[in-house]
Amino acid sequence: MPPEAGLAGQAAHFRALEGLYAAAPINRFFESTLTIVAEGVARIGFTLDERHFHAAGAAHGTSYFKMLDDAAFYACNSLVSDRFLLTTAFNLLLTKPLGPGPVVAEGRWISGRRRVFVGEARLIDAEGEEVARGTGTFMRSRIALAGLPGYAAG
């Protein structure tokens, strides 16, 4: 296969992962867009509002987890074109409360290419400040990507 065919296949996989993300029912609760920047690198733009807040008026920890897990997960799954990965563990460090507005989750693959992958992510607020960080492990599942709604690599 010529090298450009591999790159075209990789780009198709990235766009298909973006479609998979957009089709996930959970994302009806989060205004967000995934971009696979390169192999092992994902960025997700989120917009938070009061629906995501705890009683004291800032983003609930579940929102932090969702954003960090998704970014690290998709960074890792960008390296796997046949199977869906599953989160097996995730550690969070929350350093600043988030209010309403835009947030970017930046994820990157750290290690692993066979069965278990390690990825990390960080959240950047509208002022460009890091407000949280997370590290996760992700394992290959038996779930074929091609059979999932929204994934249409072509």
From TrEMBL:
Pfam family, one: 4HBT
Highest taxon of the lineage: Bacteria
GO molecular function terms listed in the Swiss-Prot or TrEMBL record: thiolester hydrolase activity
Residue runs in coiled coils: none
Thioesterase domain mapped to chain residues: 57-132
Record's protein name: Thioesterase domain-containing protein
